[in-house]
Amino acid sequence: MRDSLWSDERAIEGLPIRLVIALVVGVACLSVMMSTISGIETLQVTEVDVQPHPEVTTPGSTDVTVTVVDPEGAPVAGATVVAKSGTATLSTVGTAETGAGGNATLSLSPSLGANQQQGTVVFDVKPPASSSYRDSRSNTELLVVRES
């Protein structure tokens, strides 16, 4: 029986065809993955930022115009801007929606603590629905400085 196993060469007859099939399936899978990866570029998400005007203010009532921009500096219309307390205190959260020029005006009244010389107001952005924009990084803040 031992001689019959060693002399039997039929076991390798199917091996080359199995290798060819595995190679064809592997190449097909690789081409599908590569086309999927190249198609992801069209589904790219763009981060937005804010540009407050003025960038520095004093405690008390003030109107701040916030421009929502994409990485190239183009304005983003239809975004909702939310202003909230950072290290400076706001009595209420301010919200406004950007117009066609990407601008939103917020009426804010920041205050500082008794021994605090400066603080910040933080802005969050809710991008327009069904857009490729998102706001996951921190945005530019409004600096509040006490006059000496």
Describe the structure.
Residues 134-148 have a biased composition (Basic and acidic residues). One of its GO terms (molecular function) is carboxypeptidase activity. This is Carboxypeptidase regulatory-like domain-containing protein. The chain crosses the membrane at residues 15-34. InterPro entries: DUF7382, Ig-like_fold, Invasin/intimin_cell_adhesion. With 148 residues, the protein is α+β, with helices and mostly antiparallel strands. The chain folds into two domains: 2-42; 46-145, Sandwich (Immunoglobulin-like), CATH 2.60.40.10. Helices cover 22% and strands 32% of the residues. The chain is built from two helices and ten strands, in the order ααββββββββββ. The strands form three sheets. It has a five-stranded mixed β-sheet, with no helix packed on it. The protein has a three-stranded antiparallel β-sheet with strand order 2-4-7, with no helix packed on it. Strand 5 and strand 6 (94-97) form a beta hairpin. The termini are far apart. The model has no long low-confidence stretch (mean pLDDT 83).
Helix-strand blueprint:
Elements: H1 2-7, H2 15-40, E1 46-47, E2 49-53, E3 56-57, E4 62-69, E5 80-85, E6 94-97, E7 103-108, E8 118-126, E9 133-134, E10 142-145
Parallel strand pairs: 1-9, 3-10
Antiparallel strand pairs: 2-4, 4-7, 5-6, 5-8, 8-10
